[in-house]
Amino acid sequence: MLQRKWGLAAASLSVALVFASPAALVGFTTLGGSLGIGTSGSGYQRDVRVFNNFTDAAANDNQTPDPNYPGAVGAPLSIWKASTAWNSDVPSAARNFDYEWQGASSALGDTNSNTVSSGVACSGGTLAFTETPIADGWRIRFCTDWTWSDGPGPPGGSGIDIQAVAVHELGHALGMGHAQTTFCQGNCSGQSIMCPVICGVGGHGIAPDDRNGLQSIYGTIPATKPVITSLSGSFNRGQTLVINGSNFGSSVNVKFTAGTTQNTGTIPGVVFNAPTQASGTQVSVTIPAAALDGQVHVWKPGVGLSNGAAIYINPVVPMLVSLSASSGAVRGGDSVDLFGTNFTSIARVTFDGVDAPVTGRIGTTQITVVTPPGATQGQTADVSVVQPTGSSTLANAFTYTPNPIQVEWTGSSQIGQVATIVMYGPAGSRSAVAIGPEGSFTHPGTGFTFCFGRPIRFSRGLNQLRLGANGQASANWTVTGTALEHLSIQGVVEATPNAGDFQQTNCASLQVFP
Known about the structure:
Immunoglobulin-like, 38% strand, single chain
């Protein structure tokens, strides 16, 4: 188990350090300050931003967008995720604090800029440090003596996990000191994130001891704390965004990610004193020109911030142009390519609102899916590409056609258990099916030769298996037979309903198990 000692922090120190050698302390301590949430000037201190000067390749190799963290990849994504570990909407938190993401900074900033960065050489095994006191801000520096990794997953080789160390240092920025007394060796699963030792690659969440420390500084969650449940309206600057939720009161401030470089003076990206509607459950605001991809918060001074809702500003909307096939069996299961522009890596595809499993993507212009089952034969389905930045629909773009004439079975083949026999074909057609031991049987009336013999273990006649609007019918059979016996299933289905033009199905195999 890799252990690195996080250096001691005390109210008398100007930095809270992280070291790399063994120690053992638990039991929260505080630094004697807290981050304010005033409406102007240095009173607002709950923002966090990143000056991304990490030079290790592993620090920025995660370039996969995450819909919950718009606009961030690499080291900034890891640090944003680290900040959310302390937020009030995390189940383990239960206290009144929320970090607010301000995105990428173009400058290192001063010691009160609330900025995380790298680019400093350290000594004595220091991993990172937080510059305090925090009465009017903080700054976190990661040491260049180590190889930093942004994940996801454990870092390889001698790499150090950015997110784990950032969770610890952001705890210092909140006013938390190092955990004291007992532990920090051996029981990593329950260890405080503020322990001066990082266990293994380090944790990404907080422990009960950390929660208790934060409650001692910021209190528990008030009953009147605002909560965002959904966003609607426009997502373009200068247009109206509608925020839905609860506990908004009569008026609120609304704060957007705006890429600020410092947290003093005028607060950008804020709409102040916005009146609410629907008994305090909705607020409509004009998105400010400074807003960027990131978060939007409802802010009630004296109460706190809401949970941060992810928001894409001026979103790139997908455009679905065409499909490789305009029809397929009503049972689903056909492969179809969708062509267009601006498809993201997390775009979903639906057929009349039903999700189609994605099996492949080519850049931003092609998605391959397997069609979901339709409701009825002849149904014309709207096909949509849906992603957080918008959606695009081709109306009546896909028609569900008759199923091929087939038989399948699902369920159990264990003696005494239930197997379900499913017949497929044109909707409204009659069908019949039988099960017997592998062999051959010729029906004397029709001349059809089936791939089963006698005795017949199970059968359903023409008047018992009429195919429904979705071109299928099913029958349950309680399995009988001899252990490990091989059985065959086959039947006939009308190619045209009520026409008597029966066609044989495929043969399906079933082995009986005790």
